[in-house]
């Protein structure tokens, strides 16, 4: 680790071990130079890294204060599929599958009649439902609506980050046709939302994604 990286880590350790809260004043550059024994230039660069992450914020006439970071902000800037290796993209796609099974309870709990009407409209515009898993735009539209129904803003933003990995596995033919009789279509998922239970919908989502899971297992 470079001296700046070491100093950055020490500053993060300082935050984690001190009784600081959002809005608490952060030590000045002079105080940190004396405490950590490094130059002001090193301190300033380390502080700039914390500012870039949104951990501290500079306030007029108040110096630096502790702030609440936007956890997905850095990911949004750095998650560029063309500079990520294929293994990383594959693991991100696996994360997407786990999330969509796991968020089923939130969907079932928070859906409204209007949401169901919109889901029906999305499915009515899809091609033959057994081919629709190969139409990436319809897949994204349907599942994007499910993320919206959760009411969880972090999940909704996370979905937009996971889309490049979905495009990757689609474009590279990781997802292929399945003869699995347990596969559940988008229309059948809506039926579970309208007539089933949270558990049956969660199981249905797992069946819906089975084709994706099986191809990842085989790859």
Folded structure, characterized:
Helix content is 65%, strand content 4%. With 219 residues, the chain is mainly alpha-helical. The protein folds into two domains: 3-66, Orthogonal Bundle (Arc Repressor Mutant, subunit A); 73-218, Up-down Bundle (Four Helix Bundle (Hemerythrin (Met), subunit A)). A two-stranded antiparallel sheet has the order 1-2. A hairpin with a 3-residue loop joins strand 1 (56-59) and strand 2 (63-66). Helix 5 packs across helix 9 and helix 6 crosses helix 11 (198-208). The longest helix has 19 residues, at 153-171. It is elongated, with a radius of gyration of 23 Å.
The portion of residues assigned to helices is: 55-70%
CATH fold-level label of the largest domain: Four Helix Bundle (Hemerythrin (Met), subunit A)
- Biggest β-sheet: strands ordered side by side in the sheet: 1-2
Mean pLDDT: 84
- What's the number of domains? 2
Relative strand content: under 5%
Give Rg in angstroms: 23 Å
Tertiary shape:
elongated
Low-pLDDT stretches are none
SS-based class: mainly alpha
* N-to-C series of helices and strands: HHHEEHHHHHHHHH
Number of helices: 12
Strand count, sense and closure of the main sheet?
A: 2 strands, antiparallel
In CATH, what is the class of the largest domain? Mainly Alpha
Number of strands: 2
From the N-terminal CA to the C-terminal CA, the straight-line distance is 36 Å
Which superfamily, in CATH terms, is the homologous superfamily of the largest domain? GntR ligand-binding domain-like
* CATH architecture level-2 label of the largest domain: Up-down Bundle
């Amino acid at each position: 680790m470079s001296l700046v990286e070491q100093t950055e880590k020490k500053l993060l350790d300082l935050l984690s071990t001190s009784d600081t809260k959002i809005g608490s004043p952060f030590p000045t550059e002079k105080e940190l130079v004396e405490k950590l024994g490094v130059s002001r230039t090193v301190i300033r660069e380390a502080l700039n890294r914390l500012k870039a992450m949104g951990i501290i914020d500079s306030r007029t006439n108040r110096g630096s204060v502790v702030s609440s970071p936007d956890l997905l902000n850095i990911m949004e800037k750095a998650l560029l599929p063309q500079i990520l290796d294929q293994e990383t993209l594959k693991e991100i796609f696996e994360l997407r599958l786990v999330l969509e099974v796991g968020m089923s309870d939130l969907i079932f709990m928070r859906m409204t009649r209007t949401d169901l009407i919109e889901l029906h409209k999305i499915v009515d515009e899809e091609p033959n439902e057994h081919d629709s898993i190969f139409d990436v735009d319809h897949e994204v539209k349907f599942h994007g609506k499910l993320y919206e129904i959760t009411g969880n803003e972090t999940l909704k933003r996370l979905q937009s980050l996971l889309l490049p990995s979905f495009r990757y596995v689609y474009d590279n033919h990781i997802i292929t046709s399945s003869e699995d009789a347990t596969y559940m279509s988008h229309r059948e998922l809506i039926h579970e939302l309208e007539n089933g239970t949270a558990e049956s919908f969660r199981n249905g989502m797992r069946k819906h994604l089975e084709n994706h899971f099986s191809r990842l297992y085989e790859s």
